[in-house]
Amino acid sequence: MAKCRTNGKRKNGIVMLKIVVEKLQKSLLSGRKNTSDLDEFEEEMRESTNLPNDVKEGHFAVIAVDDGELKRFIVPLSYLTHPSFLRLLEQAAEEYGFHHEGALTIPCRPCELERILA
């Protein structure tokens, strides 16, 4: 029974991730932020997070973790359309869920993420 609940939470989390990615993609493709849904989303993000000084507008922080090795990256939002990066986000959702603060944690070797970002 508990396994069913976990799978349901994972599916809901993945659906939420897809919605966020779609909104960000629409914003990037349109070049402007004119939809009220996107404006509300951005306002929620501003209110709910405090960004570190090294995270510029249009970027987000990611931590790649594998066997105790971790490295922090600042990633442009444009990578939210990259297929390899989207697969990593799905793996992160399955492994860590959505209930943590700070940088997004991705389960992969830092060298692998460097290769994707290159």
UniProtKB/TrEMBL annotation:
It comes from the Eukaryota. InterPro entries: SAUR_fam. GO terms for biological process: response to auxin. Belongs to the ARG7 family. This is Small auxin up regulated protein.
